[in-house]
């Protein structure tokens, strides 16, 4: 039974799953959008949105928490200075997920794009 189980395990231990989310979040912060499976995108969405909400507070404590959670000062600084101010007037819903028509070649997994709603174009 799956009572009170909030996230998928992805057949990984907790530490491996957290490392997966951290790496996906860092790639998303750096590039603005990433292509992954639908399940990983749906599981990544709350993780990233909590980071953006934390970065919107613009305090030293929130900056230190971002550094601790992302384990990368460069990504935390970009989220804190560049991305969070874009969402100053938004109360949530910082990301969107597009399902792609193509499937992954190896196992036929459904692919999706997860991106920030507002991201500065290069």
From TrEMBL:
The keyword Ribonucleoprotein applies. GO terms for cellular component: cytosolic large ribosomal subunit. GO terms for biological process: translation. PROSITE patterns: RIBOSOMAL_L17 (PS01167). Transmembrane segments: none annotated. GO terms for molecular function: structural constituent of ribosome. Keywords: Ribonucleoprotein, Ribosomal protein. Belongs to the bacterial ribosomal protein bL17 family. This is Large ribosomal subunit protein bL17. The gene is rplQ.
């Amino acid at each position: 039974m799956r009572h009170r189980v909030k996230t998928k395990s992805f057949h990984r231990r907790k530490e491996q799953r957290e490392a997966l989310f951290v790496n996906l979040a860092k790639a998303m912060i750096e590039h603005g959008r990433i292509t992954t499976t639908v399940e990983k995108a749906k599981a990544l969405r709350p993780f990233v949105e909590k980071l953006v909400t934390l970065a919107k507070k613009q305090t030293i404590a929130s900056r230190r928490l971002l550094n601790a959670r992302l384990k990368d000062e460069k990504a935390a600084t970009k989220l804190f200075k560049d991305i969070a101010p874009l969402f100053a007037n938004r109360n949530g819903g910082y990301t969107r997920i597009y399902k792609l028509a193509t499937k992954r070649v190896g196992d036929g997994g459904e692919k999706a794009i997860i991106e920030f709603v507002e991201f500065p174009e290069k």
